[in-house]
Amino acid sequence: MEKIKVARLALGSKAPYFTPGLWALKLVSTEAVPTMAVDEGWRLYVNPSFADKLSERELVGVLWHELEHLLRAHHARAREMGVDRRTHRLWNLATDAAINDGAQELGFTLPEGVIYPERLGLEPGGLEEAYYRALLEQAEEDPFQGEGDGLEGGVGAEGDGASPPPDAAEPGRPSAAAWDHGSGADGLERPWELPRDHAEHPAVGEVQAAQLREEVARRVLEHHRSRGTLPAGMVRWAEGIVNPVVPWQRILQSRVREGLRRVQGRTRATYERPHRRQAAFGRVLMPGSYDVRPRVAVVIDTSGSVSDRMLAQALAEVDALLSRVGAEVWAIAVDAAAAQAQKVRRAREVVLLGGGGTDMRVGIEAALELRPKVDLVVVLTDGFTPWPAEPPRVPVVAGIFGDAGTFTGAYAVPEFIKAVTIPPGA
């Protein structure tokens, strides 16, 4: 393991911004791993025989590559993408391509046969998720060959049908294209990984891992500001860690759920369904109950300044939210006047009428006049509209196409309306 320790020192000297992550790695020497791999707990598994076959420069490059899997939280991103035992090879290829894309610019040497975007027919500079989707599409045209989950073998190994055959490697030295990078790359535990509470090599927890990523990201940005020599992808990653931007979809989801919190779980009595403890009341008939579906009015700006693409994107998000809570949806198209409310199963079923000016006050008022009463009003607008002067009697969530904070005067969004900015390019 002396050789890998020397490589860690060399990498820290070459790229000092990686130091916090490098020294958090727990080195585990094992013959169970054919090459090198990491798990979610920041344990670096090294086959000493394999490490001896690499040159010093290659070993530094491979160490950098494995650390990048952890810094980029590939295990968590894999779960968000729904990666499983059937598709994990494609995810590993996608992440390898995204990492190795920056090796030359950073001055790292990697072994022959590693995966680059061009080798997979992909454009350089892309994100892992985009590469993964592209590879999934390729796989649909040329389905996997072979059986099994592949967790015992290499990622993208020859014969799995998920990648081009790896380049030739010297005898006794595995091709880098066939490596299995461990759960740190795709979130799927391997048989050879240590338990999290291992006495000698305990796992790094998620909180500490997040702190390590943030510290490395801060150092990356400081280095970039002082020297400006880092790849754009690395700077983009660091900016996302230090100054995270919460997706508008997540904010909209939170606002809608907050608005419906007071009515979710509400029940209504009925004699058509017996009380669940009727036997305890003898001959006295007690009413049962049923859950009341929340009623939501979606007020849609159909003025000429709102594009069909804007509305389609926003309606898709509202659809997803309301279907999860089982809401009853009424849609109202509004420009300068409100059209007839339409009861729809999905918000996207609404017939969009209008095209003139905009006045969301009449749309919100039309929503409040619906009977039975609605529990929440969701407004989708470009923001160039006057708003009610007084708080409505039910919560109002507004999705604004543009920056909600820039509107002033009559168009200023009042504080009692929970506004969500929807970027124009969303």
Automatic annotation (TrEMBL):
Pfam families found in the cross-reference section: DUF2201 (PF09967), DUF2201_N (PF13203)
Domain Putative metallopeptidase: 3-283
Species whose genome carries this gene: Calidithermus roseus
InterPro entries cross-referenced by the UniProt entry: Put_metallopeptidase_dom, VWA-like_dom, vWFA_dom_sf
Domain VWA-like: 296-400
Extent of Gly residues compositional bias: 147-159
Stretches the record annotates as Disordered: 143-192
Designated name of the protein: Putative metallopeptidase domain protein
Highest taxon above the source species: Bacteria
